[in-house]
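Changelog note: in this version the structure field was regenerated for every chain. One regenerated record is shown below for reference.
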Amino acid sequence: MQATGNAGSSSPATPERVSTGVAGLDNVLNGGLVANRVYLIEGEPGAGKTTLGLHFLLDGLRCGEPGLYITLSETAAELRTVAASHNWSLDGLSIHELISEDGLAADAGQSILHPSEVELGETIEEVKRQVLGHRPRRVVFDSLSELRLLAQDALKYRRQVLALKQFFATQGCTVWLLDDKTSQPGDLQLHSITHGVIGLDHVTQDYGTDQRRLRIVKMRGIKFVGGYHDFRLDTGGITVFPRLVAASHFRQFDDATQSTGVRELDALLGGGLVPGTNTLLVGPSGAGKTTTAVRCALSSMQQGGRVKYLLFDETLGTLLSRSRNLDMALDRYVENGQLSIQQIDPAEMSPGQFATLVREAVEDDGATMVVIDSLNAYIQAMPGHRYLLLQMHELLSYLNQQGIITLMVLGQHGLIGNVASEIDLSYLSDSLLLFRFFESAGQVLSALAVLKSRTSVHERTIREFRIGAGGLQVGQPLQDFEGVLTGLPSYRGTQALLGQRIDD
């Protein structure tokens, strides 16, 4: 995205922007923060404030901007330990501790600071001396909770923070104030004082990795992407996954119908798969949904397309081996880069990270088809069905506007008779391909039908469907059967099934 200036500003010049040091967060902010302002970074202990602050200062060093880390809560050694865990070096970064062993001694009384810094005013003066001495362009102050305790009353605390803000405004500094939200709930004093507020959220789930999110609570003069944005804190620092807004992404594309590689399946779909649409393959386990998706992906690659296959349920080895046995080998397409298969662990991946993964496949790798196999595991990774529908709606809208052919596999509970889904996603799909088992002459057979297509006039017949060494076989419409979709059909004619003769 292109950085945008301060909307509605009377200044003729575009305000200078500075990077936060995290590409995804800069994206959320449409280019970064306005320079020479004071910002509040708030979050509970462990949310990632210190790491984010180090990102900001180290990015400044790379840009030739000196940085200063003023700490009341951690020692310089502890900061270097945090940096080392991300393989970072703090060489060139100025660190000033407002803590000492003397201040922590039992006879030091009520303060954890140096004897010369017992009073709040003296602490503020020490901060000013450090800024004047180092002349930094970027400053991180960690943290305001200790300053709040030292002030003892809200009025004095607010006045001193205002004094700091006025001082920094005269020094040409971009300042981050870190706060661990230990004040009284609903205390928004700092929100009104600072130019912008970024909130970090850390949620522990019953199973799987912790979920981390951030939100731009307030940002003056910047058009930003609102809402929660997932982020990951790992070795190497913080990675932010901006919330996907489909309306911001559109491109022209060729909407010529593409074949699935099976003539009869093309006929069912009204000609084939249309770019800019998504197809939901739904049915019980073992009915052939994944094999059909692989057949469609193989046909796309044979026509020169690139496919991103997001695999939740099976292992990569199982998928490749099964495809070879069905005469649909994928190996050479993996080797030449046309096919990218990625094993997904839903317990370790947030919805925002998944959406970013899809975006990278489309925008960076040039994928023309995306396969999600299956949605069942993705559903389990979501905090609630309501959020799943919103996420999927945005993701599918994005893929459609990019001209991508999307295949989604959804397994249903049950095998014969009463078959049901965990959640109804049919209204989000452009086409719906239904798989069913049915019984005939002592055999369990498979049938498929297209129940919906928004882009073409499709067949409304039910066809037999088989998987064998030659791949997929789709038979003629089952005109002599009734009740196929119930799993218990009745036979009223002489129609031959696949692999049968009429006189058998």
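Spot check on this record: Residues 385-401 form the longest helix (17 residues). The chain has two domains: 17-243, 248-491.
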